[in-house]
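Comment thread on ticket #2218

A.B. wrote:
> Attaching the input chain for the structure job we discussed in standup.
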Amino acid sequence: MASPDLTQELTCPICLEIFTHPVSLECGHHFCSSCISQSWQKVPGDVSCPQCRQVFTQRNVRPARTLINIVEKFREVKVTQPQEEFYCQEHEEKLKLFCEDEHKAICVVCGMSRTHKTHSVIPIKEAAQIYKNKLETSLETLQKQMDLSLHSKREREDGIFHMKAEVDRLRNEINSEFEKMHKFLFEKEELMKAELERKSNKVFEEMENNLTKTMEEISSLEAAIRDLKSRLEVQLAPEFLKDIQDLLMRNQMVFHKPGTVSTQLPVDIAGEPFKYIKVWREMRAVISPVPASLTLDPETANNRLIISQDLTSVRHGNEEQDLPEHPGRFDQYVYVLSSQSFTSGRHYWEVGLGNKPYWIVGVCRESVNRKADITESPENGFWVIARLAGCKSLKILDAISQLKVKPRKLGIYLDYEGGQVSFYDAEDMFHLYTFTDTFTEKLFLIFNPCHNNSGNNPEPLTLLSG
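C.D. wrote:
> Ran it. Output below, let me know if you need it in another format.
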């Protein structure tokens, strides 16, 4: 006679019946072949064990031959044994019904009693099938939730992995950039100190030579003074006048002051702050990206824009100018592009905003529409920010109106391969906004000083020199 423990071991965890054609998963758990197939049928991609939740990339199952033999033997023994029956404790009748109101099995006598007369009573096998279906539905729902949670777990783990990789990359980049700057500054420091020693030693040598000559003259004068004082002490006239003329001639000495030696070091060594400005300018060669200089392209400028002679500033004029037609000129909107374009690398520029209340600045691709209506969005090739008073639903990004302090100088950073356009308040490098995209064609800087508004927005946008 089979024990209850053996019955439990031979029960499929999905259908809760004795195994039918049991199969084994890689984790070692067993299920009916049809049960596990149905469980995985609606699951895309990776699957998991319904019992231990181990995830499998391959849907590998293999027949559990030993378990198949055990189940067959168990079924043979079970057929020869009387079936276990369940009886009502009150009426000693078989439990053939199920009360849906009280959720318990009852006998036929209970079902006819006044207690259950108004209740919904169904055959116990029908109830078992109903609740089996409900459990299977709950199991399927939970399985889907488990699959979603495992997918979310993998996403979180991937996110952590990529974040760590990005932190490592940035840490290495910081180390590399500062190593270059440290090396450059150390070499400049050593050169400047060596130059200081060389030029100061030359000055010291001249000053020491002058001092030596002065000391020699002082020694000669002291000797002459001693001779004269000694003769003045002689009392007898013949002795006093002996060789008097030679004595006077010998002691007629004049102090020759040495030539003047400057006590100031050369201006290229001592001059403040010129030597450090020179080093700062030279240091730009090791910084990437270096602040770059730009000019404006007059052939792209709207005919209401006025560009300075040096092509570094633009403002709005109140009247249209008679400008030649050009395929690259903006006709309806007061835009102008930079003369320079970019198809690779990292670049940084600064634009003077002054106290302008309205402006639009950023980057655009070469193929943007220049002759008709413009929607300034990344989808249309514009990566720009703006300050436009009173706008609550801009088609372009207004990253400035929320700031307490409005920037007077805007920094623009382009990383072509990295797919980034970032904007900063260039006074303190406060980050304003970053666009992330993929660039596939030539990019230009684009500027819109906005309308003058009867003198309320007269200042120009100015390209600041690197």
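A.B. wrote:
> Thanks. Noting for the ticket: Residues 124-232 form the longest helix (109 residues).
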